[in-house]
């Protein structure tokens, strides 16, 4: 699980890997480019006349015009109403945007509730880009032709990948536990190990979405480390791991070369997961920021390390390695319900605030990493941090730690421990129950849009207007019709 949880001066360690603002990707209609180049001079003259007429009104305006500035341009959200779209008022108002060479990013209309008694009354919403120096006169000119003219801030949110290929941009590593920099790392004083890590890490840096994951020819020493952990944990799984894990583990031994004497190759494991749940693996060189890592889950992509822990510490690693990934995470990602829960975590993170990212990564910690569940009256482990650590797996199901019923609101703010065993674990009634509780929690995350994953194009659709939502509902109706017809055939 290449997700950082190191500390910062303010909160628990989540370093932001990307802070770009979303703008152009939220456009929902073609841009209106204003006049053609040959008419620009005429437009400037007309704009000067408009400016002169509106100057006094602009100077007297008492309210502050709200906009976002970028490189000499202002991005405005403007609302106004017209009593009817059939009068010269509409053409005059649109002419204002043309006169000021405004680029219209989005234009939307709806019946005006304030003008119900007026036939054809409409409210207009226009998102446009205009020269910063023209903002005041543009607004004043619109006010001369329309009513209830208002401006609002362009909504900002963190950049996030829209296409699966955008994950190529998520390369930012957190240096915590890096053997080249962390003196407490078991491999810090071992130059051979550090060079080996660099060589394997370079595979991830060169990798691009859609490529085959290169093989790593593991050394005898590396296989020996894997063998010691694999053999020790395998004997414990029968009594400590959940049934979904045990079923998937047997399939991985049968189809992906899981054995004490072989470290599975990521490409083969990725194909297995793709067929089972649609998840796929992507090589990564170390810890990612929480924002980047969670965003990958939204595409059903798991960022997976290929290097193995230092031979001097086979039963413990201060960072994720292929033992943790292949023994801890992969079997659970082969379960459909758990895979959906993991993707839901990723989808909830897209465009979320830093505060919500921290809460979501903490939820990830207490579920995907250190989660417990009830099965047949017993408590079993499903978290990867438990299933890849003999000591903590035994500890988690002993009487020593405190256990609580899983509630997302509580788990999201629970302090956690990344150096020693957890003092508190959360127990879910089932994966389905955890998924439903999480869905209710996500509904409270504030974003100016919703998102959905399109499995046909492996892309994220931003649901920020009614037309997109209606399109999604139409697709859902088609799927429901197929299922309804299937029931009819069976009955």
TrEMBL record:
GO terms for molecular function: iron ion binding; tyrosine 3-monooxygenase activity. The keyword Plastid does not apply. It catalyses: (6R)-L-erythro-5,6,7,8-tetrahydrobiopterin + L-tyrosine + O2 = (4aS,6R)-4a-hydroxy-L-erythro-5,6,7,8-tetrahydrobiopterin + L-dopa. Residues 1-12 have a biased composition (Low complexity). PANTHER family: AROMATIC AMINO ACID HYDROXYLASE, TYROSINE 3-MONOOXYGENASE. The lineage of its organism: Eukaryota, Metazoa, Chordata, Craniata, Vertebrata. Pfam families: Biopterin_H (PF00351), TH_ACT (PF21417), TOH_N (PF12549). This is Tyrosine 3-monooxygenase. Fe cation binds at residues 324, 329, 369. Pathway: Catecholamine biosynthesis; dopamine biosynthesis; dopamine from L-tyrosine: step 1/2. It comes from Stegastes partitus. The gene is th. Plays an important role in the physiology of adrenergic neurons. Belongs to the biopterin-dependent aromatic amino acid hydroxylase family. SUPFAM superfamilies: ACT-like, Aromatic aminoacid monoxygenases, catalytic and oligomerization domains.
């Amino acid at each position: 699980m290449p997700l950082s949880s190191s500390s910062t001066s303010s909160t628990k360690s989540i370093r932001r890997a990307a802070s770009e603002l979303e703008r152009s990707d939220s456009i929902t209609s073609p841009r209106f480019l204003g006049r053609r180049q040959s008419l620009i001079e005429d437009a400037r003259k007309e704009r000067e006349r408009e400016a002169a007429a509106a100057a006094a009104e602009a100077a007297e305006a008492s309210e502050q015009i709200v906009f976002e500035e970028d490189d000499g341009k202002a991005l405005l959200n403007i609302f106004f109403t017209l009593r009817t779209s059939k009068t010269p008022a509409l053409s005059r108002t649109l002419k204002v945007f043309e006169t000021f060479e405004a680029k219209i990013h989005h234009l939307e209309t709806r019946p005006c509730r304030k003008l119900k008694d007026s036939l054809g009354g409409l409210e207009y919403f226009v998102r446009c880009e205009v020269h910063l120096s023209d903002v005041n006169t543009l607004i004043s000119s619109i006010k001369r032709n329309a009513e209830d003219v208002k401006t609002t801030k362009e909504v900002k949110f963190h950049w996030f990948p829209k296409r699966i290929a955008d994950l190529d941009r998520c390369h930012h590593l957190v240096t915590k536990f890096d053997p080249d920099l962390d003196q407490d790392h078991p491999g810090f004083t071992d130059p051979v190990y550090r060079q080996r890590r660099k060589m394997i890490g370079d595979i991830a840096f060169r990798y691009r979405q859609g490529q085959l994951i290169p093989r790593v020819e593991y050394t005898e020493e590396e296989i020996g480390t894997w063998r010691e952990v694999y053999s020790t944990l395998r004997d414990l799984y029968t009594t400590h791991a959940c049934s979904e894990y045990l079923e998937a583990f047997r399939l991985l031994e049968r189809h992906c070369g899981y054995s004490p004497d072989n470290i599975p190759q990521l490409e083969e494991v990725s194909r297995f997961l793709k067929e089972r749940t649609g998840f796929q693996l992507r090589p990564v060189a170390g810890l990612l920021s929480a924002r980047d890592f969670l965003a990958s889950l939204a595409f059903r992509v798991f960022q997976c390390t290929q290097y193995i822990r230092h031979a001097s510490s086979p039963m413990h690693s201060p960072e994720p390695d292929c033992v943790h990934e292949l023994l801890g995470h992969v079997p659970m990602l082969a379960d459909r319900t758990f895979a959906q829960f993991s993707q839901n975590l990723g989808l909830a993170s897209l465009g979320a605030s830093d505060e919500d990212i921290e809460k979501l990564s903490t939820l990830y910690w207490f579920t995907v990493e250190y989660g417990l569940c009830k099965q047949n009256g017993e408590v079993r482990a499903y978290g990867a941090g438990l299933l890849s650590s003999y000591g903590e797996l035994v500890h988690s199901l002993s009487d020593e730690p405190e256990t609580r019923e899983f509630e997302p609101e509580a788990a999201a703010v629970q302090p956690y421990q990344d150096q020693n065993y957890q003092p508190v674990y959360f127990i879910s009634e089932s994966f389905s129950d955890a998924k439903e509780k999480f869905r209710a929690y996500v509904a409270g995350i504030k974003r100016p849009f919703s998102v959905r994953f399109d499995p046909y194009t492996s892309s994220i659709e931003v649901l920020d207007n009614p037309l997109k939502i209606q399109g999604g509902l139409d697709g859902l109706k088609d799927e429901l019709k197929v299922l309804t017809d299937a029931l009819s055939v069976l009955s």
